[in-house]
Design goal:
Length: about 80
């Protein structure tokens, strides 16, 4: 169980690093999903989680995400 949580944290950190450039990134197999070696569904879930806590802005319709300006300023 600890290993699963650690892997999840690594994936979340990877998403945030990718989004640091503050440009919209696609969830698609071409972009985030392929970079993280995850399914689109898993990336969708993780981005939904990050959006819930206002770390990213996630457009579920367009399937794109951008790091939130407030969170980006903290880094």
């Amino acid at each position: 169980m600890y290993k699963e949580k650690a892997e999840e944290q690594i994936k979340i950190q990877a998403i945030l690093r990718i989004l640091e450039d503050r440009y919209p990134h696609s969830v698609s197999e071409i972009e985030l999903a392929s970079l993280l070696n995850l399914s689109e569904e898993n990336v969708d879930f993780l981005l939904g989680f990050l959006a819930k806590y206002a770390l990213v802005t996630y457009d579920e319709e367009e399937k794109t995400a951008v790091i939130s300006a407030d969170f980006s300023a903290l880094e």
